[in-house]
Amino acid sequence: MRDISIVALFCEDIREEKAGTETIVGVFPDNLRLPRVPGVFPKMCVYVRTHIRAEFDAGPFFIRIIMPGGKELSRSEARTEMVNEVREKARSKGAPYAGFISKFVVAPLEVTEAGRIQAVVTIGGQEYVVGGLNLEVATQQEAT
Question: 20 to 30 A from 5, CA-CA: which of 33, 35, 97, 125?
Fold first, then answer.
């Protein structure tokens, strides 16, 4: 197994269920045509699932959501102590990896230009683009 495995899904909603599970609703495709820009999503969610090898020292670990044009929309940082605690718990159970879930919710989300929204993770001093949503503007014919 690699040291790191991370995936981000852009979706309409993330629902927390009574049983402790989560339901991801309306996962967007990689490319999404908008009728016009500027525009607004009533709600945009990003679900990030991270696995690191239990023996891997991740160091500082944070996730950023970056809008087209480079503006940072949101940032979440996992404290090194918390990451080490989860790694230790995984090792004590004999698990090969430790897992983390991060969720971002923006309501409403204003889109001022076409381009790619990116989920970027910095872990172990390395930056990884772990998900993207390419926003395209529909041609006038497509929009009607």
Answer: 33
